[in-house]
Amino acid sequence: MVLWSTALGALLLAIVGYVCLMGLLRQRRPQEPPLDKGSVPWLGHAVAFRKNMFEFLKHMKAKHGDIFTVQLGGQYFTFVMDPLSFGPILKDAQRKLDFTEYARKLVMKVFGYQSLDGDHQMLHSASTKFLMGQGLEELNQVMLDSLSLVMRDSKGQKLEAGCWYEDDIFHFCYKILFKAGYLSLFGYTKDKEQDLLQADKLFKQFRKFDLLFPRFVYSLLGPREWLEVGRLQRFFHKMLSVEEGLEKDSISNWIAHMLQYLREQGVAGAMQDKFNFMMLWASQGNTGPASFWALIFLLKHPEAMRAVREEAAQVLGEKRKPFDLDVSVLRHLPVLDSVMEETLRLGASPTLLRVVHGDQMIKMASGKEYLLRSGDTVALFPYLSVHMDPDIHPEPTAFKYDRFLNPNGTRKVDFYKAGKKIHHYTMPWGSGVSICPGRFLALNEMKLFILLMTTHFDLELVDPDTPIPAVDPYRWGFGTAQPTHDVRFRYRLRLSE
Question: Which residues are listed for heme binding in this entry (predicted)?
Answer without folding.
Answer: 436
